[in-house]
Amino acid sequence: MLRKTVTIKTEKQFTDLTQIAKDFVKETRGEGSLHIYVKHTTCAIKILENEILLLADINNFLNTLIPPDTEYMHNKIEIRDVPVNERINAHSHLRQLFLTTSETIPVSNGELLMGKWQTCFLVELDPIRDREVVFSYMES
């Protein structure tokens, strides 16, 4: 197994990880799989089409489904055992419920077996942050 952890500063909602993934597996031979995992509860890993209007639609859908300005229990900092400067981010945690913390992509002879329109994204739900993303390759 090969493993690499990358720290990414998210400056936008969708960060393309595809090239990092391609570079990570390019020296592998034979058949295997690449697992991409994010070590946080307010962001996700998702394979989506990299089309700007679709990404805007996803953002609008999440804002409609789980608005940031609704009263959530998690945001009641005064009754939680957390620092007073804790982020008000219940909506970020709730949005992550509908996404995933990881994706697995088949690999053949150093190539990701992704479809023409597929892009692997780190989806930030609580910007701007440093995020740790783990890339693990396992040979079949």
Pick out its properties.
140 residues, Jelly Rolls, 3 helices, 8 strands
Descriptive overview:
The chain has about 140 residues and is of the alpha+beta class. It has a single domain, classed as Jelly Rolls (Sandwich), CATH 2.60.120. It is built from three helices and eight strands, in the order ββαββααββββ. The chain has helices at about 20-25, 50-65, 90-95; strands at about 1-10, 15, 30-40, 45-50, 100-110, 110, 120-125, 130-140. Strands 1-8-3-5-6 form a five-stranded antiparallel β-sheet, with helices on one face. Strands 2-7-4 form a three-stranded antiparallel β-sheet. The chain is elongated, with a radius of gyration of 17 Å. It starts with a strand and ends with a strand. The model has no long low-confidence stretch (mean pLDDT about 95).
Helix-strand layout with pairing:
Blueprint: E1 2-10, E2 14-16, H1 18-25, E3 31-38, E4 43-49, H2 52-65, H3 90-96, E5 102-108, E6 111-112, E7 118-124, E8 129-139
Antiparallel strand pairs: 1-8, 2-7, 3-5, 3-8, 4-7, 5-6
Briefly note the CATH topology name: Jelly Rolls
- CATH superfamily membership: YjbQ-like
What order do the SSEs take from the amino end to the carboxyl end, as H and E? Answer: EEHEEHHEEEE
Number of strands: 8
